[in-house]
Every structure is written in C-alpha cells, then in structure tokens.
Amino acid sequence: TFPAKLWLLVNDPRVRSVRWDGSGEGLLIDQALFERELLGGTPGSAGEAEIFKTKNFGSIIRQLNLYGFHKLPVAPSGSAVGPRVGPAAAGNSPNNPDGPQHHFWNPHFRHSRPDLLVRIKRLTKANREKLDAGLKVPSR
C-alpha cells in the first residue's frame, strides 16, 4: 500500500528526498529531488525502477491527502532527523531554488512506530462516513 511504500522510503538511507522531521512525527519531502530520484523514468537511489505508478508529483500529494496526511508549514532549516543531504541543503523554504519543500503529518505515521501503519486508511467517501460514525474501517 502507499503508506507502507512511504515508510520504506523514509527509512531507507539511500533515499535523500524523503525524510523525517525533527520530532519524528512528520514527513519532509524535497519536491525537486523527489521528482528526480523517485519519479524520473530511471532507477533512483532507492534501487527501484518504478516505485510509484505515476510520474506526477501532484498525484503523490493527492495520495498523501487520500491517506489522511495533512500539509504543515515548512519548519526551519535543520529540523529534520539527520543531516540534510543534497543540493537543497542551502534552504528549507517553499521557495527554495531547487524546488519546494513539503511537510506532511499523519497521527499514525511515526518514526519508531511501524505498528501504527495499519491504522492509516484510504479516505474514500464510504470510509469517511464509517469513521465519522465511529465504525471500524478494515485495512487493505
């Protein structure tokens, strides 16, 4: 599923475009590097020829939203877990010359808590109605 792929990417030291924020409770994405590294037509540093079924970064944002991730303001530079790697190291602002930085949060996507991934549900209309009614939504 999408959240499991994301979990593997953010924890893979070879992937430089996706990382944890300073608290380990959010996800930081360097858009330009992500597009080159994971969406470009060639194998990225993750060693996968095609991790996602799309080449469009907007589709990745849509998937994040469908799985309950919320966009947050970009934190000050240096707030990521571990050092910032790559050409975008000079700035962590949305107007970075190398491309915008995105900060996403989901209550069930945590640095040392892979057990929470099963709680991330795709927010379809039917699932949203079940969750609003307090019912359980099975994980795919």
Automatic annotation (TrEMBL):
<dbReference type="Pfam" id="PF00447">
    <property type="entry name" value="HSF_DNA-bind"/>
</dbReference>
<dbReference type="InterPro" id="IPR000232">
    <property type="entry name" value="HSF_DNA-bd"/>
</dbReference>
<dbReference type="GO" id="GO:0043565">
    <property type="term" value="F:sequence-specific DNA binding"/>
</dbReference>
<dbReference type="InterPro" id="IPR036390">
    <property type="entry name" value="WH_DNA-bd_sf"/>
</dbReference>
<dbReference type="GO" id="GO:0005634">
    <property type="term" value="C:nucleus"/>
</dbReference>
<keyword id="KW-0539">Nucleus</keyword>
<feature type="domain" description="HSF-type DNA-binding">
    <location>
        <begin position="1"/>
        <end position="123"/>
    </location>
</feature>
<comment type="similarity">
    <text>Belongs to the HSF family.</text>
</comment>
<feature type="region of interest" description="Disordered">
    <location>
        <begin position="77"/>
        <end position="108"/>
    </location>
</feature>
<keyword id="KW-0238">DNA-binding</keyword>
<feature type="compositionally biased region" description="Low complexity">
    <location>
        <begin position="78"/>
        <end position="91"/>
    </location>
</feature>
<protein>
    <submittedName>
        <fullName>HSF5 protein</fullName>
    </submittedName>
</protein>
<dbReference type="GO" id="GO:0003700">
    <property type="term" value="F:DNA-binding transcription factor activity"/>
</dbReference>
<dbReference type="InterPro" id="IPR036388">
    <property type="entry name" value="WH-like_DNA-bd_sf"/>
</dbReference>
